[in-house]
From TrEMBL:
UniProt-recorded name of the protein: NlpC/P60 family protein
Signal peptide segment: 1-20
UniProt-listed SUPFAM superfamilies: Cysteine proteinases
One annotated GO molecular function: cysteine-type peptidase activity
Length: 177
């Protein structure tokens, strides 16, 4: 269904390009339809972000290990994010708090696959940065992120951006532009 919508939009855009050259405008009913269709097309990742996430996926199951950024031994959260981005030539911080000044801040509503989510530590009432993860997917407004957690999964896993993580959310930053 999504592919059909995208193909339809592309065909309509090509048709519009021809109309624009003739200085005629698109009828209002079609403009409204285009707006609705385009608002439902999922946010997609850039090629680099897709490659970055494919690479990160290969590390699902690597155990959590405090203060480590070595896939053979394990990762803490920032070690994992640092390892993934560094593998693609990006200079990113090694500690979670330093991610607050890394990249370009983005509103959560504008965040895309490959952006970094920054959270408090495990206690959401203590508003101090203590955890990071990478947006893994955004479908129908639902975000999943990949991270190394000391929690139940105790390692690299993909997690829903649920109420618990929303209570801990501090900011999002874009590293890949």
């Amino acid at each position: 269904m999504k592919k059909t919508l995208i193909i339809f939009c592309l065909m309509l855009l090509f048709a519009l390009k021809g109309k624009a050259q003739e200085n005629t405008s698109l009828p209002a009913q079609y403009q409204e339809m285009m707006t609705k269709i385009l608002s439902n097309v999922p946010k997609t990742a850039s090629s680099t972000a897709s490659q970055l996430l494919d690479f990160a996926k290969t590390m699902i199951g690597v155990p959590y290990r405090y203060a480590t950024s070595n896939p053979e031994k394990g990762f803490d959260c920032s070690g994992f994010v640092n390892y993934v981005f560094s593998s693609f030539g990006f200079k990113v911080p090694r500690s979670s708090p330093e991610f607050a000044s890394a990249g370009v801040p983005v509103k959560l509503a504008d965040a895309k696959v490959g952006d970094v989510l920054i959270f408090t530590g495990t206690n959401p009432k203590v508003r101090r940065i203590g955890h990071v993860g990478i947006i893994y997917s955004i479908e129908d407004g639902e975000i999943k992120f990949i991270h190394s957690t000391s929690g139940k999964a105790h390692g690299v896993t993909v997690t829903d951006f649920d109420a618990y993580y929303k209570s801990r959310f501090m900011k999002a930053v874009s590293i890949v532009e």
